[in-house]
Amino acid sequence: MHKKRIKGLLLAVCAAFLMGCGDGEAVHTNADISGTESELSKDGTEADGTEESSDGAEEKEPGEGEDADGGESAEPVTDGSFMAPVEMDETLKNQLTEEMLEENEMDLSVVESAPVTKGCNFTLPEAFSESEDIEGMYVTRRYPIDASTIYYVALARDVALQLMTEETFKAQAEENFRKEYGEEIEVTIDSFESIRIDGCPAFRILCHYQVGDTQISQLEYAINADKSYVITYSQTSDYDRMEEYEASAETIHLVF
Length: 256
Description:
Elements lengths: L2 H10 L2 H4 L71 H14 L15 E3 L6 E3 L6 E4 L8 E8 L9 H16 L5 E11 L2 E12 L2 E11 L2 E10 L5 H8 L3 E3 L1
Antiparallel strand pairs: 1-9, 2-3, 3-4, 4-8, 5-6, 6-7, 7-8
């Protein structure tokens, strides 16, 4: 399977987490290997106060995937995500979200005052290092022969993320495939859990899908704090790293 297409397929399901999170610019982190932690701060500095290197995220002029006023358009962005434009007043949006959460007896804590976080950290499995091609993505030394990846992104807070269900996640992921690849790819949800990480509502989703003769499995975590933090662990059927992924996921924590 073509290297570029592998990247897009591994990111497409991750994009289902990002629907409705288009109000703010994505902020990525760098991570070290061999048991060190990756940390992100809201102002673009590391948790110890040092600044990011010059090759970090830069402020961009409005371009493809953005409206002239800085808002996201419905066009695909570079990481394979499809984010619908948010035109609703934020207060009204939060009010409607709260009503829908109450109606469906879902977690209401997300509409309350979220704790201020400096970032999210987790321990990378030893075999992974930062990708040279995609910011926030970590790959094995044998990539793309071993197409296992870990992808991390932090976005502006969006209380509507808490409305996500197994059905809406599946539908959005499959729609991402249709838009980007023109293919009908069925996403199978193996487990969909509403959990809490450091007191904040979060989702844990395990899913898989078949593309040609390749099966791709993904373990995803989304934390809804004062930012939306998403971590996606992916693997193909040729390599089984799920035990390493589970161990890494156990180290996920917010930095306050």
